[in-house]
Structure formats: C-alpha cells, structure tokens
Amino acid sequence: MVQKETIQVVLITGLSGAGKSVAINCFEDLGFFCVDNLPPVFIPKFAELCLQSGGKISKVALVCDMRGGAFFNDLFEALLELEGKEINHEILFLEASDEILLRRFKETRRRHPLSETGLLEAIQEERSALGELKGKADKVIDTSGLTPRELKKKIFEIYEPGRRERGMPVLLVSFGFKYGVPLDADLVFDVRFLPNPHYVEHLRPLTGEDAPVKKYLWQKKVTQRYFQKLLDLLKFTIPHYAREGKVQLVVAIGCTGGKHRSVALARELGRVLSRRNRVYIEHRDIDKD
C-alpha cells in the first residue's frame, strides 16, 4: 500500500506590528518552507505543489495578513478548500495591545497597511477586521510583553517541544589557516602553538583521526591543559548561547594545514560535548595537500 503524502501547513497571521516577521524567521530556523505575504487564493494550489514534492517539502509556514488588501478576503475560502483536500493546517494568530502597537510603529516608522486613517484608527480597524479570523485560530500569542527573543523561544517551545531536551546543535569545524577561516564561524580557536606532528616524519602522512597522532599530541602537557581550558569555556558559553535563542553554534578550530592538531582537538571536543549537546564534526581541510 502506497503511503499518502502529508504536509504540515501553519498560517501565520494577526495584527500588523505584532511580530509576524520574527515568527516567520523562527519557522525558517525550524526547517519550514516559508513564504511571506502569499495571496490567500494561491494557498491551496501551493499546498498541492508541496504535496507533489515527493517529501522534499513537508512543513510549510505562510504569512497572510492585511497587506494583501482585497486578496485577504479570499482567506476563509482558501481555508475551506484546504479542509476539503484534507490538508493538515493550523492558524497561528499574533496580537498585541493598541498601546504597544502604537509604540512599535512610531519606533520603526513603518507604514501601517490601513494608514489612510490615523495610526490608532488603523490599528483598531484592523483588529475589528481580524476578529473572526482570531476566533478560528488554533493558537493565539499576545506579544505585548514579549521581546523578539522571548517570542522566538515561545514559538520553538510550541512547534518543536523537544528542542530544549535535545540541546542546541554545535558544529565543530577543523580547518587550516593557510586555506582561510570558515566564514560562518561563531567562535575561532587557533591551536598552531601546539607541537606540530607535521615535523615528525612518521606522523606527517597521518591525520588527527589516527591513534599515533592523538598519542603524540596528548603526551604533551600543553595540549592537555589547553584542551581542558577550551572545554571549560565551551561548557560555560554553549548554554548561554542557547538561552539567547541561537539556532546553531559553529566552533572553528584551526591549525596550519587543518590535518593534524585541529582535527584531533575537534574530534575529542566532539566526544565530550556530545554527552549534553547534538554535536556535528566537519574536517574541512583534512584531505588537502
């Protein structure tokens, strides 16, 4: 029996200035295929195209709001069409108090989509127009007292509840300075001061993945002391990065050629840090001459 393809569709909507831009960025970080300001009339067809992707697109987040103008009135018909096609979907509605929305628009100097009237009148008109949609929402988040970081955390908790237990992903990248520092590195550590196996003839053809190279390095007290200090630093900083809402931490460890010292340290760090975090290791330059 052929299993029927399914997708998860989250419609993000709500009041202008309530945090929809922050929300769509969060869903992108969660691996959703995201589209901002999609006219409602296209939603059912777009969902069908995703279903035909062969599993490549299984989670979709769409922002649909009053910026669509007259097109926005087609939203309820589009939702009924999704229900008729048995496409799993839900509505996430973001709102905030008039006072907070006024302050946000004044701070950002952004134009309200209904700004033909005064700003407060536009906010109240939009709130009234969206009342029925809010009543149909599966989840409502009041962002009045939330910072962008707190809103991001709340969305993560709702749509990926196991994220905290699994820990923030940490990517350890070994590299050679002669080939350049990884552009996406959050933290860069230089281990070129450690004894270099390259100058030991029988170790030169090997890499930091090989036992003789590891033994050579860990026999040196400077390697042992540095590794412990680096490990302590990462154990201290990683939880703080996670609490700030960072999606992934990229730690780059470099030696001259990226073949011996950086590889060995990245591998050992990965072994220890994986006890409390999801750790991925990439040896960028290990195969280069």
**Sheet with the most strands?**
5 strands, parallel
Number of domains: 2
Mean pLDDT: 87
CATH-defined architecture of the largest domain: 3-Layer(aba) Sandwich
CATH superfamily of the largest domain: P-loop containing nucleotide triphosphate hydrolases
Q: Might you state the CATH topology name of the largest domain? A: Rossmann fold
Strand order within the widest beta sheet: 2-3-1-4-5
Derived structural class? alpha/beta
What is the C-level CATH assignment of the largest domain? Answer: Alpha Beta
Q: What is the total tally of β strands?
A: 9
Give the low-pLDDT segments: none
The helix-strand sequence is: EHEHEHEHHHEHHEEHHEHE
Give the amount of beta strand, in percent: 15-25%
Shape: elongated
Approximate helicity band: 40-55%
Please state the CA-atom Rg, rounded to the nearest Å: 25 Å
What is the rounded distance between the termini?
A: 51 Å
Question: What's the SSE blueprint?
Answer:
Blueprint: E1 8-14, H1 20-29, E2 33-36, H2 43-51, E3 59-63, H3 75-84, E4 89-95, H4 98-108, H5 119-129, H6 131-136, E5 139-142, H7 148-159, H8 163-166, E6 170-176, E7 187-190, H9 211-218, H10 221-243, E8 249-255, H11 261-273, E9 279-283
Parallel strand pairs: 1-3, 1-4, 2-3, 4-5, 6-8, 6-9, 7-8
Helix pairs in contact: 1-7, 4-5
